[in-house]
Every structure is written in structure tokens, then in C-alpha cells.
Design a protein that fits this description.
The structure is a homodimer. Chain A is of the alpha/beta class. Chain A folds into 2 domains: about 1-245 and about 450-465, Aldehyde Dehydrogenase, Chain A, domain 1, CATH 3.40.605; about 250-425, Aldehyde Dehydrogenase, Chain A, domain 2 (3-Layer(aba) Sandwich). Chain A contains 13 helices and 21 strands. In chain A, strands 13-15-16-11-10-17-18 form a 7-stranded mixed sheet, sandwiched between helices. Chain A has a 5-stranded mixed sheet with strand order 19-4-3-20-21, with no helix packed on it. The radius of gyration of chain A is 24 Å and the shape is globular. In chain A, about 60% of the residues are buried. At the A-B interface, helix 4, strand 3, strand 4, helix 8 and helix 13 of A face helix 4, strand 3, strand 4, helix 8 and helix 13 of B.
Chain lengths: ~500, ~500
């Protein structure tokens, strides 16, 4: 069996990649497992150098990588150039995390032989969880793929990675792999700390492999839920960190609609159709005051939109079906359609209707991947709050309000907090900064692991496991736990956090 | 249907408790969900006062609680008095955690409009995950039951709790509940922030209830795995923090056997039979040098042991079956048996055989709950390392060695680190200190959530979820995220950890 690299714009076959057989996946995972000590012994500083070398290698190859990814995904040079920079920047940020050292969460409790019962000397730190399986996403061929956030945080944690390539950009995946391996060689580490598998059967084998101890996944609800259930039903269940689907509601209060309708209409239309609406944080559901005219004000922006090439045939088919299903909902109007033209291009859609539709149409709360958004009108605060209460777990909730509406805004913020991982105020959810304070996650179905994040420095915690050493002879202590703190780590001693 | 409180020593029925129906469980969970804002608004300081009031109420009722628990579990007054103190101490420790504030993991990233792409103002903190279901353990009627570590850490996180009582101590459960509720009233909070359900069907309903967002469980492998699978297969899967079963290998090196055999034999026999061997960290498998004489040296301690009352009929039946199954393994000798006598009492067992038995008898790597331990003799380092490699995920690994054996000890420690959450050196695994540095967890089947702990202050992280506020107007920011840091929290600003 074969995975073809397809030109997204022309539909033509580019190159052929053999599917990885289950037996080959087992060999990849076994090899990854063998390399655990190498990554571990490199220590935080050795791994920081590794991530930086990988970042350099990606940057050096940026031109070539962007060209291949653009052919496979049609995302365009500008966006893809930015995405390579985001990806190398992400690797460098995890190098910072490794040098800073808080990720080890070192805790030292002194012995107290006179306590009842006597207290031993306890020294606790995080260690690598084991081999990590990563499923690349279709919509971020770099930042959420072979060298993306899951891989960066897993390698930072000390976990070798086996990536299941996304079938819509296999060439980009192979070339990214080559860059990461060049980085590994430059850092003096075995290049097989990152490996690559192709094909759906390989993905299933990866989730089931006994050497794999966690999965990072970004993709669809159906595929993600299937793999989640597989991970949970293994003889040894493993954590499945899945980002599945998100409706990302955006709320416009009456005051905001009154005072800045034109601005919001333009910003929202741009956010909903950016990258052909193929972002996991695309605002897919807008709650706006009835009679405020938001949908109408957005219409001109949609009508003016050029037809867009989606990431590939299955994505286009999914969008066509999802849009048709929604357009068929009685009471939901198609307010505007973007320009059409060209066999492999789709027209953006703007739909609108009353918020009361939510009572009978759960479909309105499900993500439709692609350039489509739905504006629902609420008649009063009660209906707005009820609508927000219906919203399932989401990556983001966005609120546009005015300072005069602080009571309403506080009530909405409280509801929103329990439904999302990121609350955006007076802005748009697209654009996820990679940094120390970022949170990219949320209650199900946004993710399968609501206590974690897949973007930002805290993502490393997913691939670490705490171990405590009780009354350990000094000669056997790892450096992070030694009295002289040779790595200058922040540590918690008898409950008190101490900076180096 | 009814759950009976049974006197563990006499087998007589004491009192009757109606099983909670699934409909009643739904009402409990709905009520718990309604109380989320109350616990949340109390804030870390209000919840600290709550936990302290609960601790005081437990201490005030210690005499009564111990008497009831002793009747139901036969664990004895001394141990149970200590356990109440451990439990109230645990509640007070989480009050410290709340006042210290690191649990909120506050991160602030400044805006940078000139960056490419521009960076927004991001402020991240942890919020309560939602209602938590707790399954009480048989063997710790206080410390891992109604007011135990799961409840303490969930309440600290701001999550109301619904406890499934353990059927072997329903009266203790009800009286503990009364104490916790008295504490809640004293702290001015609704007493239903902790609720109690009885019966197996109620447990199933609790795991499936849509208001429940996480489960804490301590119990058997079979029961825990069943409930884990139920939690994973819900329409909305939820985290299942389960502690299931652990063999807790203890290794004696040739040097340790040579230099302190008598001391190790006494300490190990005491640890393996403490509390009638009903500890999750009981050393169930000992790896000792062939010809070193450890089993023989332990024999006298076992032979002298009085017969012991177990926690209840199902535990005794399980022990009898588990012991018989192991004693029937060809090549495994019953080296010593404790005294017998009394209808409801069991005799301790010490079994021994060659480490080569591990190759064909996986049963030797499974926990046998009760006063039984197995000593396996290894002939050389190769056989010892292979034996340790076979050990599945465990709460603890214990190593007895001498300073002269540092090379061997380092190799064993490296293997052990990847198999357990706590490494004990030259001591015994029983006795789990509650503190900042403790780690009680480990790879499956020790737990279903290897990245977490159920004992120690880090246990609170299981019930928290991060949320980031992007460009939030100051008026809508929670206190933890305000510029003036009114709660004097440790916070990370632009990647740099700052102490208050």
C-alpha cells in the first residue's frame, strides 16, 4: 500500500511513500525505546542543545520545506514561512525551558527521625515517561506535525518520538524528519530519536505498541476518539493527549454591536476565513444581539472572498458535506457566499439564524472544518447565557463587550471559563502565541485531557512522570537531587520554593 | 438493597445502610455541581479555612471514629488513631498548599505589539476541574476514604466531592462524613460539598454521571480497571486516577545479604505483615542472592506471628485463594506459616523459590493482598537484572545494598526508576509520608495515571485545569492574575519565576 503526495492545487500525484507495516512500526518503537537512555543521559542541557540544533536545521532548510509544503497543502508561502519560524522558535523555547529547570519540579523534604511517625529524606523529580507517539495534523504541516509542539515537548522531556505522518503532506514530513535528524547528528545524538511512519494501519499499531507510553494527537473528533479508545483499552492503558474539535464561540454583546459593529464584522470575517478556515481555533459560532446587524455587516467581506484551495480532497469533501448539512437546517439562512470558480476551490459561507435553533440542532455546536461560520441572534441576556451554557468544551471563547457592560461581561466570563482553555477579550481566537503562559486545550471534545496543554511551555508536563528517592545514598542520587544543586535548579525545600 | 456494617472480628451485622440508587446518585452529583461556585468563590484562603475546620472536626471525634473503624476493620486502636491524625494532618497540609499558592501555577506573558506576529497579553492560572467522584479504599478507612487524600486534594482544588463508600466500613464512612460536614458548617460553607453514596451500582452511576469530571480510586486491579474503562468510554471521557495493585519488589544485593542479613530479615518480615499485609506498598516480591539464607532467616519471624483478622470476608476469601494458588506453583516452597487459630483469622505465609520461576509464572508478579510474601533467589547479576526487568509498574522498588556495590546499585536504580514512583534505599516501603515531596504512583498497573500522585501536595494537580485570559480588561481579571498580585502568589512573569 502507498501514500501519495498530492499537489493540493492541481490534484496531481507527486511522489509515492510506502505505508509502514505494523511489523515495521514495532521495530521503530523498539528502536525508540532503546534510545531512551541516550536522551536521558544527555540531560536537560544536552537536550537543549539538541533542540537548538534541530531549530537551526529547520531554518536552514526553510526555503525547501516551504516549497514542498505549499505544493502539498496550498497554504501559501507567507503563511508557511511564518510557520517554519514558529516551529523553530518553539524548539528554541523548549531549550529555554530545559535550561530554566522548573520542569523537573524538584522537591526535597528533610528527614525528621523525631516525628511521629519518623520522616525519611524524600527527593522528588520528574523523569521521562517513555516513547511518545505523535499524530501530525493536516492543517499545520510544521507547527503541529513532525517537528511540531508534541515532538518538541516530548524530546525536551527526554522521550524519543515516533511520528505518524499526516497523509496530506508526506513529503513535507520526510523533509522535516531529515532536518530534525541533521540537528540530532549535529548535537551528537542518535538520529533515530525521531522516526516516521506512514499509513492508517501504522497509526493503529503505534497506539497499541507496548513500548509507547503516551500519544499526542491533533485531528478530527472521529479519528481522535477512535484512537483515544484504543489507547484506553490497551492491556496497559496510556495517556492520550488529543485535540479533537472545537466550535470556539465568539460573543458580541449589545454594547459592542452598537459601538463597533463594522470593526467586529471585518475582524471576525477575516478570522473565520483565515487559512481557508482551517484552524482549530476558527470562530465557528457567533452569538450576536438580534437586530444588531452583525451578519449583514459581515456579508460584504464574505462575498468579496476569492475561492480557496483546501488542504486536500478529503478535507474538501468534508467541508462540502458539512456546509450542505448546515445549510439545510430550516431557519438557518445563507447570508453570504464567497466567490466560486476552479475545480478544487471552495466558496466561503456565512450562515445566520435565531439562537433558538440551538435547542433542536446540536449540529450547530459541532466544528465544520473550513471557511464557514454561523451567526446566531439572541433576543435577551437570558437567551445568550442559555446558548453559552449549551456550548460543549472548546479551545477558546471570545467576548466582545464594552466597559459599561461589566456585570454582563463578568457573568459571561464565568460561564466561559468553565467551557474553554483560552478566553479572548475584544479580539479573535486565531493566532495562538507560543510562550510560557499559553494554554491550548479545554474540556472534551476540544481535548481528551483537560488538565493539559499542547501549546506553550507547560506542554512538556504531559511527557514527564514523578519519582521520589527515599533515603537515597548520595552516590546514587541524580544531579538534580544532590545537596549541592549542580544544575542550579529552582527547588522546593521542605515546602519552600527556592530560586537558584 | 442494603449494605451491612459487619464486625470484622465476629462477623456479626452491626447496622444497615440503604444502597444509593442511580437516581439518587444523579441528584447528589447535580447538587455537587451546583456548589462549584461556592467552593470556587471561597478562594484558596476560604478553602484553607474549610480544610482546617474539617481537620479539627475529625480530631475532636477521633475516639468515636476509631472505635467504629476498629469494629468494622479490626485494624486496631493504635494504627487507627495514627490514621485519623494522618488524615487531619493531610487536610491541614492542603491548607498550607492553598496559602502558599504555587498550585495555581500563575503565568503572565506581556504583550509585545512589535513582535512578528504581535504577542497579546496572556495570563494563565489553574481553575477547578469540576465535581470529583472518589472511591474509598478498604485498607485505609480514614486516610484513603471519605476524608482521605483524594477528597482533601479535590476540595483544595475547589471541586465538590461525591464519595462512594467502601462496603467494608460504611459506618466509619457516615461518621467521617458527619465530621467533614461539621467542619464545612464551621467554615460557613454548604455541607453538601462532600456527599456519600453506598453500593456497587451507585459506584457505576457515579463514574458515568455527566456532572462528574474526574475519578479518584484506590482498590483492586479488577474493579479499578472496570471503572477506568467505564470512565474512558463515556460520551465525555474523564480522567480516572486509579491506584490498582503493586508488587513492590525489594532487592537484596549479595553484599547486603552478607553484612546485615538478620536485620533485613526482621525488617522485611515486619513490613510484609504490618497491618496483616494489607498495604498497597507491602513488599510482595523479594529478590535475594541464592544461598544467602534470607528466607530461612525470615522464617522465625513468620512462625511467631499471631493469626490476623483481615478487613472483611471478601478480603479473607481473596487472600485464601491467592495464597493457595501461589502455594501450588511447582518449585515454590512454603518456608514458614504463621500461627493459625480462630475462625476469622488467617496465618501469614512466607514462600520461596528460584528466580527462574518468573519465566513461567506471571502470577508471581501480581499482588496478593494480605500477609504473604515471596522470596526468589537469583544466582547472578544477570538473573537479578532480568528479574527486575520483568516487574510491571509498581508503587515502590526497594534496594538493600552496600556502599562497595555502587556500580550494581546504580544499574539497579536505573532499572527501578523506570518501574516505580518511589525508590526506597536500605529501608522498607511501608509507611508513606504525607508531604511536599512525596510521590505515590507509578506505571500501570500500579496506577492508571502515571504522570500523577495520589499522596503528597502534588495530588492537587489532578483536579485542576489551566485557563488563559488573553487581553483581559483589568476589571474582569481574577485576583490571582491582577497586576497588583493581591494574594501574594509566586508567579512566572515572561518566563521568570518570581517569589512574592
Amino acid at each position: 500500500m502507498t501514500v501519495w503526495s498530492i499537489d493540493a492545487r492541481s490534484g496531481e500525484r507527486r511522489t509515492e511513500h510506502a505505508e509502514t507495516t505494523p511489523r515495521e512500526v514495532a521495530a521503530l518503537c523498539r528502536r525508540a525505546h532503546e534510545l531512551l537512555p541516550a536522551l536521558d543521559e544527555a540531560g536537560p542541557r544536552g537536550r537543549a542543545a539538541l533542540l537548538e540544533a534541530m531549530a537551526d536545521a529547520l531554518d536552514e532548510r526553510a526555503g525547501e520545506l516551504v516549497a514542498v509544503a505549499d505544493a502539498e497543502t496550498a497554504l501559501g508561502e507567507t503563511r508557511l514561512t511564518g510557520e517554519v519560524a514558529r516551529t523553530s522558535g518553539q524548539l528554541r523555547l523548549f531549550a529555554e525551558v530545559l535550561r530554566e529547570g522548573s520542569f523537573l519540579d524538584v522537591r526535597l523534604d528533610s528527614a525528621d527521625p523525631h516525628a511521629t511517625p519518623p520522616k525519611p529524606d524524600l527527593r522528588r523529580m520528574n523523569v521521562p515517561l517513555g516513547v511518545v507517539g505523535v499524530f501530525a495534523a493536516s492543517n499545520f504541516p510544521f507547527a503541529f506535525s513532525v517537528g511540531g509542539g508534541d515532538t518538541a515537548s516530548a524530546l525536551a522531556a527526554g522521550c524519543p518520538v515516533v511520528v505518524k505522518a499526516h497523509p496530506l503532506h508526506p513529503d513535507t514530513s520526510e523533509r522535516t524528519l531529515a532536518a530534525l535528524r541533521a540537528g540530532a547528528r549535529a548535537a551528537g545524538l542518535p538520529e533515530e530519536i525521531v522516526q516516521l511512519a506512514h499509513g492508517q494501519e501504522a497509526g493503529v499499531a503505534l497506539v497499541q505498541d507496548p513500548h509507547v507510553k503516551a500519544i499526542g494527537f491533533t485531528g478530527s473528533l472521529a479519528g481522535g476518539r477512535y484512537l483515544h479508545d484504543l489507547a484506553a483499552s490497551r492491556p496497559e492503558p496510556i495517556p492520550f493527549y488529543g485535540e479533537l474539535g472545537s466550535i470556539n464561540p465568539l460573543i458580541v454583546t449589545p454594547g459592542a454591536a452598537r459601538t463597533r459593529l463594522t470593526e467586529i464584522a471585518a475582524g471576525l470575517a477575516a478570522s473565520a476565513t483565515l487559512g481557508a478556515g482551517q484552524f482549530c481555533v476558527k470562530p465557528g459560532l457567533v452569538l450576536a444581539p438580534a437586530g444588531g446587524g452583525l451578519a449583514e455587516a459581515m456579508a460584504e467581506h464574505f462575498t468579496a472572498l476569492e475561492p480557496q484551495v483546501l488542504l486536500g480532497d478529503p478535507i474538501r469533501a468534508g467541508f462540502a458535506a458539512g456546509a450542505a448539512e448546515r445549510q439545510a437546517i430550516p431557519g438557518l439562512r445563507t447570508v453570504a457566499t464567497g466567490r466560486s470558480g476552479g475545480e478544487r476551490r471552495v466558496a466561503a459561507r456565512l450562515l445566520a439564524g435565531p439562537a433558538s435553533l440551538l435547542e433542536s440542532h446540536g449540529l450547530l455546536l459541532e466544528e465544520c472544518f473550513g471557511p464557514l461560520t454561523i451567526v446566531l441572534d439572541y433576543t435577551d441576556e437570558g437567551e445568550l447565557l442559555r446558548a453559552l451554557e449549551r456550548v460543549p468544551g472548546s479551545l477558546t471563547v471570545t467576548l466582545h463587550s464594552t466597559p459599561e457592560e461589566s456585570g454582563l461581561a463578568a457573568r459571561l466570563t464565568a460561564l466561559a471559563r468553565d467551557r474553554a482553555g483560552r478566553l479572548v477579550f475584544d479580539g479573535y481566537p486565531t493566532g495562538v502565541t507560543v510562550g510560557w503562559a499559553q494554554q491550548h486545550g479545554g474540556p472534551y471534545p476540544a481535548t481528551t485531557a483537560p488538565t493539559t496543554t499542547s501549546v506553550g511551555t507547560a506542554a512538556i508536563a504531559r511527557f514527564l512522570r514523578p519519582v521520589v528517592y527515599q533515603n537515597c545514598p548520595p552516590a546514587l542520587l541524580p544531579p538534580a537531587l544532590r545537596d549541592d544543586n549542580p544544575w542550579s535548579l529552582p527547588r522546593r525545600r521542605d515546602g519552600v520554593l527556592e530560586l537558584p
